[in-house]
C-alpha cells in the first residue's frame, strides 16, 4: 500500500518537513507468552544516528517491560554484519529490529529468520524484497534529498557545479537521498551542473581526499551534498584543508555532534536532520504488536528538519540533534 504523506514547508532554507506516513498492514505474531526477547542490529554501532536510535529503543523496551539487546557492526560492511545476524538468529528472538547495510545481500539471512518465526522490523535502511519485514520505519529519504537540493541551489544562487558524495551503492536510504537530490536539481535548477556521484564507503578520510581532488579538477565547484554523517565530516575536513570552508556551500544529511560544530563554524551550511529516536521507539512498538498478533503498520515515515545557523538554537530544532551516548 502506498504511504500517505503530508508535507508542511516553512519559507526559506529553514524548512521543516513534517512527513508523516502510515499505512495499515497486517503482521503475524510468534509466541506472545512469557518475557519477550527483542534484538536490534544497527548499521554502525559508533554512529550517533544509530546510537540515538538505539538509546530510544532501549528506553521504549524498558518502558514496555521487555528486554532489548543492542548489536551493531564496527563498519558499514555486509561481511561484518552477516555474522552478527547469524549469531542473533541462533538465539531465536521473538523480534529483530535491523538496519541492513545492503538492500539485497542480507535478504536470505533475514528471510530464514522470518521463516523461523522471528518478527523482522526494518529500521532506517531496508531490503529490496518487500516480503521481508512486518514494518519499515524510516525518514522519507527521497524527500530529504529533494529538500537538500532546494537549499543548496538557493545557497549557490542557482548556478555553478555541484557534487554528491555518499556511502556506497545499495544502501537504500542514501540511494533514495541521491535520487531525490538529482531529480530536484535536474527538474528545477538547470543552471547547476552535477558532477558524477562519488562514494566513500562511509570513511571520512576518503571523503576528505575526494573533495580535495574534486576541487583540484573543478576549481569552480560551488556546492556539495553529503549523504550522511561520516561523509559530511570528511567533506568538512577536506574543505578546511583546502581553505575553501564557507566558499563551497554544503548541504548534509544528519545532525551528529561534529556536524553541529561544523554548522556553527560555517563549514557546513544546511543539515537535513532525521528523527532516529522516533524510528527506534516506533520500531519497538511495531515489533511488540507483531509478536502479540496485533495490527502493525507496514510503512512509517518519520519527520526531518532542515537546520541552519539561523534556526539551530531553537528548542524545537535542537531536539533533533543526535547523541553520542545514552
Ligand atoms: O544517515 C544515517 C542513516 O539514515 C543512513 O542509513 C546511514 O548513515 C547514517 O547512519 C548516518 O551516518
Description:
- The protein has 326 residues and is an alpha/beta fold.
- The protein has two domains: 27-138 and 276-302, Response regulator (Rossmann fold, 3-Layer(aba) Sandwich); 141-274 and 311-315, Response regulator (Rossmann fold), CATH 3.40.50.
- It contains ten helices and 15 strands.
- The chain has helices at 48-63, 78-89, 107-115, 141-155, 172-188, 204-217, 229-241, 257-264, 276-291, 315-318, and strands at 16-17, 21-25, 37-42, 67-72, 95-98, 119-123, 135-139, 160-166, 192-194, 198-199, 221-226, 249-253, 270-273, 296-302, 304-307.
- Strands 1, 8, 9, 10, 11, 12, 13 and 15 form an eight-stranded mixed sheet that branches. A seven-stranded mixed sheet has the order 2-14-7-6-5-3-4, with helices on both faces.
- The radius of gyration is 20 Å and the shape is elongated.
- The two termini are 35 Å apart.
- The protein binds alpha-D-tagatopyranose (T6T).
- Residues 43, 47, 49-50, 124-125, 171, 173-174, 228-230, 253-254, 274 line the site of alpha-D-tagatopyranose.
Set out the fold topology.
Blueprint: E1 16-17, E2 21-25, E3 37-42, H1 48-63, E4 67-72, H2 78-89, E5 95-98, H3 107-115, E6 119-123, E7 135-139, H4 141-155, E8 160-166, H5 172-188, E9 192-194, E10 198-199, H6 204-217, E11 221-226, H7 229-241, E12 249-253, H8 257-264, E13 270-273, H9 276-291, E14 296-302, E15 304-307, H10 315-318
Parallel strand pairs: 3-4, 3-5, 5-6, 6-7, 7-14, 8-9, 8-10, 8-11, 11-12, 12-13
Antiparallel strand pairs: 1-15, 2-14, 13-15
Features:
binds alpha-D-tagatopyranose; disordered N terminus; 2 domains; alpha/beta; Rossmann fold; 326 residues; 10 helices
Amino acid at each position: 500500500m502506498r504511504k500517505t504523506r503530508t508535507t508542511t514547508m516553512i519559507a526559506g532554507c529553514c524548512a521543516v518537513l513534517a512527513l508523516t506516513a502510515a499505512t495499515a498492514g497486517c503482521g503475524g505474531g510468534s509466541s506472545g507468552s512469557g518475557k519477550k526477547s527483542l534484538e536490534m542490529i544497527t548499521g554502525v554501532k559508533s554512529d550517533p544516528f544509530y546510537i540515538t536510535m538505539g538509546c530510544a529503543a532501549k528506553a521504549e523496551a524498558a518502558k514496555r517491560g521487555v528486554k532489548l539487546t543492542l548489536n551493531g557492526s564496527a563498519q558499514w560492511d555486509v561481511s561484518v554484519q552477516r555474522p552478527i545476524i547469524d549469531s542473533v538468529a541462533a538465539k531465536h528472538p521473538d523480534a529483530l529490529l535491523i538496519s541492513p547495510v545492503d538492500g539485497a545481500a542480507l535478504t536470505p539471512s533475514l528471510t530464514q529468520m522470518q521463516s523461523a518465526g522471528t518478527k523482522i522490523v526494518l529500521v532506517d535502511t531496508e531490503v529490496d524484497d518487500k516480503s521481508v519485514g512486518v514494518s519499515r520505519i524510516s525518514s522519507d529519504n527521497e524527500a530529504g534529498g529533494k529538500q537538500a537540493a532546494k537549499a543548496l541551489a538557493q545557497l549557490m544562487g542557482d548556478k555553478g557545479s555541484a557534487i554528491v558524495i555518499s556511502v556506497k551503492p545499495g544502501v537504500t536510504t542514501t540511494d533514495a537521498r541521491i535520487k531525490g537530490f538529482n531529480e530536484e536539481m535536474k527538474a528545477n535548477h538547470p543552471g547547476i551542473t552535477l558532477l558524477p556521484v562519488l562514494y566513500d564507503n562511509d570513511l571520512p578520510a576518503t571523503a576528505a581526499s575526494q573533495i580535495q581532488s574534486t576541487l583540484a579538477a573543478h576549481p569552480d565547484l560551488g556546492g556539495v551534498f553529503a549523504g550522511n554523517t561520516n561523509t559530511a565530516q570528511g567533506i568538512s575536513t577536506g574543505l578546511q584543508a583546502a581553505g575553501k570552508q564557507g566558499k563551497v556551500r554544503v548541504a548534509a544529511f544528519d545532525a551528529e555532534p561534529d556536524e553541529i560544530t561544523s554548522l556553527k563554524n560555517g563549514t557546513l551550511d544546511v543539515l537535513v536532520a532525521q528523527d532516529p529516536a522516533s524510528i527506534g521507539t516506533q520500531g519497538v512498538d511495531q515489533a511488540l504488536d507483531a509478536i502479540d498478533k496485533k495490527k502493525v503498520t507496514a510503512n512509517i515515515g518519520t519527520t526531518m528538519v532542515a537546520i541552519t545557523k539561523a534556526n539551530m538554537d531553537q528548542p524545537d530544532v535542537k531536539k533533533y540533534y543526535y547523541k553520542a551516548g545514552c
